[in-house]
Structures are given as structure tokens and as C-alpha cells.
Amino acid sequence: MITIRDVAKESGFSSTTVSIVLNNAPLSRYIPAVTKKRIERAAEKLGYRPNQFARSLRSKRSHTVGVMVFDMTDPYCTLILRGIENTLFESSYLPILTDVHNERTRFERYLEMLLDRRIEGLIVLANWLFVDINLLGDLEKSSIPIAMVGSGLKHDSMSSVVVDNEVGGALAIEHLYSLGHRKIAVIRGPRTLGDSSPRWRGIRSFAKEAGLELDPRLTFDLPESRDPSSSFQAGQTITQDLVKQKVPFTALLAFDDMTAFGAIHSLNRAGLRVPEHCSVIGFDDVAPSALYTPSLTTVRQPMESMGAQAVAIVLEGINASLAKHDAVAVHRKVAPELVVRESTRKL
Amino acid sequence: MITIRDVAKESGFSSTTVSIVLNNAPLSRYIPAVTKKRIERAAEKLGYRPNQFARSLRSKRSHTVGVMVFDMTDPYCTLILRGIENTLFESSYLPILTDVHNERTRFERYLEMLLDRRIEGLIVLANWLFVDINLLGDLEKSSIPIAMVGSGLKHDSMSSVVVDNEVGGALAIEHLYSLGHRKIAVIRGPRTLGDSSPRWRGIRSFAKEAGLELDPRLTFDLPESRDPSSSFQAGQTITQDLVKQKVPFTALLAFDDMTAFGAIHSLNRAGLRVPEHCSVIGFDDVAPSALYTPSLTTVRQPMESMGAQAVAIVLEGINASLAKHDAVAVHRKVAPELVVRESTRKL
DNA sequence: TCCCGAAGTTCGATTTAAATG
DNA sequence: GCATTTAAATCGAACTTCGGG
User: Chain A residue closest to B261 (CA)?
Assistant: First the structure.
């Protein structure tokens, strides 16, 4: 390996000067262009790459951001991760991605590993359940900027980026309503999931305003579960029961896209075609939704952008602490967007 | 921050002894239990965490493995990544995940960043196209163990883990044949993709053996593209043309699951129900396949296991180089598995 | 020679303080 | 004081050498 001393020897200057020149340090403005040229040429010639460990040891910076996902296999993560990765790349930060599988021990172990690597910021993708207060305590004391994506907990030492669930819920029901649907089945999210109640609030407040009645016999809750793909299963069984119940309905509003997939599956089994016999709308717009048969009408979360915003917040936090002003936590609520595809149609 | 010297002071021993005890170094067998206890207690009490930069600087080890994905949004990646993550976690290695978006510049930049961080091994997830010889050259000279997952290139300085495409192709056609199908449309992979030709070879050799005739008018190729989701599009348009062509067929064998989704979509549009009017089989068994309507019969790649195997190979390589024996590249071909679901049925 | 522990060097960079003309 | 350069201290752990019992 080539060290800074090799470059010093090759260029004929001291390693101090080499360091100053190659880092464009403040002092470098005193250094004449010829010297710089010679040093740069020497470094180039030798293929010098500074040792990051030595550099980090001295400077106490890692140029690294930790990313914790609660479950990678959830398609909800994919695009958010891409947004994160893209934005970090532009700033030359390297992400360290960890997947905690919704397990507490994994969470703790990974958090420790990340802090050991001196990550300068942390992004938490809390895509599904798992809201543990103690756990947040562990995070707080780390004193690095933290942003949570996709979970509504407002904590004042951690920033957050969430979709506006209330608006989203309203958007969904409004779409069905405007297509002429009046008997609408609703599958709400699990009670303890932060997204569930605001989304339901949005639905109810639109219904009230429009004079639409939501039949309690057509309203269901997803069960609690730490497995995101379970919402497919639950969507299936709930819809089975719904059909058996014989209370008529012409549309179904699902808590998320996975639930919608499960619902469509069961509707088909029962001989009900989507959208001919029943319209179905989801939430999220995960990647498979566009590829489904029929392609799914849904309320999109701008996931890539949410990831990008989380990074922006964390990077600002890092810069603030470098400049010794301390940044306060930011809470951003982003607007969802209705995406109309094939699974809904006029009554 | 608490340093080793603080622990030394607290425990009353020198930092040398502390280092020896805490790392369980060879010399530690001379150190009496009481000393160890006292040092461990002091470390515990102070909450000592060794500085990884200092440690790595000295030991020249990073306990880090690089993972390069060619396109994260490809659902094919998800489970492989989980397999990788799981296995690395067990060995206390930390993955650094990079997504090169199928772009050469990103590839180069990330490779540089990873090598700068002194990754001890590299896993490349070459899920889709992009086979560039020069690029492999860049990799080779890095002299760390490398394993490629999902791409068939046999390079003798890099290990690889791939599914047995020939067996897989045969499995797929055999399934359709055994259900009584004789007029089978086939959508092959892109010509330049490594997986395409062995898969086709498997199909043909089974057909030959079984006396099944493959009508050239029912055989198509996916176009080249660097976007994995394009195979959905291509599957759609090819199937549209196929239907228009009016050459009768009762089953369709798609290159991969995405293609199958596109095909099902177009069949539905044309009023052909799957599997009632046409059976469809895919390849890969990506996560959405189980959730599709109808759920997709497919040939599964054991992706999680493939990821795990890649890690195992790389870790072996690392250990070998630590022990000064040099490891040779390993090429593993793993067996695919037929997964029968709803999209195929007896004629 | 075996056991126990410490002093001092090293890893490769950054940074401070200081020396030159 | 100014422009230019550098010797030496520093970051925190690991390892080599050495000394005393």
C-alpha cells in the first residue's frame, strides 16, 4: 500500500504539505501552484489512496450513515431505500444497511455495531409495527441525528418523514365515492400501527362530509402481526368472510396494497371479478401493484422522495453539529397521490 | 469517549494488559483470573467500546464485506440480500450495500469507495444483463475474495453461485407437458443474458426426449434492456402479438416471473383466463408470485440459500488468506425447484 | 524457563506550532 | 508580519520487546 510518506518522498515535500494540498486544507492557499502540481502528479503516479482508518481515527469522521430497516422483504422498503441510497451517493456518504427482522435482539446488536463504526447519522425505516418505547430510548442517547421514515411517532429528539395518512385515506374513499360507489367495505390497519387511525380518520371525515354511510358490518381490522406479508393472508381471510356474510358491497378499500392483493385473490375465488363486480383500492403503491392483474388503483406514498428527504434531514443534522449549532428535530408530512389503474371503475 | 487507557487507569493495569485480556489474545493464558475479572469489570463499568478505526488501522482488518447489487428494485434481489445479510450477521461481519443502477460510473465509484473502506470480501449480485469484460478486470486486481450470485460467467479468479438453468428449464416444460399441454408458447430470455441459453437448452432437450414439438411461431425472445422491470412490458407486448397471431396454444412458458406477469396481463385483456384458457409458468419465484391472482406456478431459485452460499465462499476466502493459503475460486450450481400454484392446470 | 506485566513502537493520516527567508 | 514548508504531537488500539520474580 502507498502511504502519504511515499507521496512525500516522490514529490520531494513533507507529508504535512502533501496532506494540506491533497485535502485542500485552509493552509493550502499559501502553497504555490507548482508545488501543488508536483504533489498531485506524484500522488497520481503512485496511485495514492488515503487510508480511511487513519483518516477517520484522526478526524473522528466516518462519512458513513447507518440505515436500519425493520423488514427488508417488505416491498414498501425498496423504493425508499433507493431514495436513500441515491441521495447519500450524491453526497459521497456510504450507507451501512442493516435488517433487524423485527427482532429486538437484532436491533440492539446492529445498533451497537453501527455506533461502533461511528456512523454520523441514522435512518430508521420503521415500516411495520414494532413500536417499543425502550427501544427509542436506546436510540436517543446516541446523540447523532436520526430520521425515521414511514412511522408516525413524533419524538422530539428524532426527525420523521411520513405520508399524510389522513389525506391519503380521504383520497381513497373519495375516489370510490366519485365513481358512484356507496356500499364500500373497508379493511383498516392493525390497531396498534401508527398509520391506521389517521387513515381511518381521513376516511370517516370524508364520508361524513359527503353524507356517505359506512356500514359497520363492512368494516374490518387487520390483526396485529410482525410479518408484513401477513397482511396478504389477512386480506384473504377477511374478504372470504366478507363475501360469505352476504351484506352487499360494490367496492373495497384496503389498508395497503398487500391487503388489496389478498382481497382480490379471495374475490376471484368467490367468482367476483375485479373491477367488474367489485372495485378495489389499495395504499402505498408498492412495485408489484403496477404489475398486478388487474393493475391496482392505489394511493401512492412518494417513497423515493421520502427516503431522499430523510437523508437530507440527517445530513443537515451532521453539518449543524459540525458547525456547533445544534439542529432540532424536523417532522415532515408528505402528500400522497391517487394513482388510478384498472382495479376500480364506475358503478 | 472512553479509551483503553481509561480502562487501564480504572483497573490499575497497563493498557497492554487490558488489550490482551479484552481481545483474548494468545498471551492472555498467562494472565490470572483475578486480573481478568478486574479489567473486565472496569471496562464494563466505564462502558468501554474499542475504537474500530484505531483497531482497524493497526490490525488491517475491517470486518466488513461489500455487496454490490446491479439493481435493487429487482425483486429477485430481495431474498438473496436477506440470505447474505443473515449469514454475515452470524459471523459478525457488517455488509456495505451499494446499488449500481446498472451504471458503469456508479459501479466504478462504488468499487473505489468499497476498496477505500478496506472491505475484506465482495459479493456481486449481477441480477440482470450488464456483462462487461473490462469491468471484471477492475474487480480482479482488487485481490480480495469475490463471489458473484446469479450470473453465469465463469471467471477463474471469482467464485460464483448460480441456479442450474438447464435443469430449471427442463423442470418447467416437463410440468406443462405432464399436464397434457402440447402447444406451448415460450418466451426466452434476452440473447446476451447468460441465463437464457442454458435455460432454453434444458427446454429443448426435454422436448426432444419427450417427442414434443416446439413450434417456432410460438417462440419469442425478450429484447435486451438494462431495466429488469422491462421484462414485464416485454411480456405484455409479446403476448399481445402472440394472441393476435391466432396460432393456437394452451400454455405459455415465460423466461421469468416478471415476464409471466406481463403475459397474464395480456391474456386477460384478450379475454383468456389463466389457467382456464391458458396455463402460465414463470421462473425465479420472486415474492410477488405467491401473491398474484392467480398465484404463479414457477421454478424457484433458492435465493436465500444462494446468498448464504456466496457469503460462505467469501468468508472462506478471507480465512484462507489470513492463514496464508490462497483459496481458489469456487463455482456452485444450485438445484431449482418446481413450485406448483394456481396458474397452471391439466388440459 | 515459566509467569506476569509494562514500556515503547507502530499503523497512516491530520493538525499544531514553529522555523525559514 | 508574510509566504512557504516542516518537525513533532496526536488519534486509540495492537504488538514486540524486555524485565523482574
Answer: A291
- Label the pairing between strands A121-125 and A94-99: unpaired
Is B14 near strand C, with its CB below 7 A from some atom of it? Answer: yes
Considering only CA atoms, name the residue closest to the C1' of nucleotide C5. B17
**pTM here?**
0.92
Same fold, A62-163+303-335 and A165-300: yes
| B293 with A51: Cβ contact below 8 A | no
CATH class held by domain A4-50: mainly alpha
CB contacts of B268 in chain A (<8 Å) are: 293-294
- Poorest-pLDDT segment among A316-330, B44-58, B226-240, B278-292: A316-330
What percentage of chain B has pLDDT greater than the value 90? 78
The answer to whether B96 and B66 are in contact (CB under 8 A) is yes
Q: How confident is the model over B289-296, as a mean pLDDT?
A: 97
Lowest-confidence range among A279-293, B153-167, B266-280? B153-167
For chain C, which bases have at least one atom within 7 A of a protein Cβ? 3-8, 10-17
Residue spans of the domains in chain B: they are 4-50, 62-163+303-335, 165-300
Query: Which chain B residue has its CA at the smallest distance from A274's CA?
Result: B293
> Tell me: the pLDDT tens digits for A127-183?
665 555 566 667 777 789 999 998 766 777 889 999 999 999 999 999 999 999 999
A53 CA, C19 C1': separation in Å?
31
Best residue in B59, B96, B117 to probe A by mutation, most A CBs within 10 Å?
Answer: B117
- Average of per-residue pLDDT values in chain A: 93
User: Using a CB-CB distance cutoff of 8 angstroms, which residues of chain B are in contact with residue A261?
Assistant: 291-293
Contact A103, B112 (CB under 8 A): no
Q: Which fold has domain B165-300?
A: Rossmann fold (3.40.50)
B59: contact with A, CB 8 A cutoff: no
Class of the domain covering A62-163+303-335: alpha beta
**pLDDT beyond 70 at B132:** no
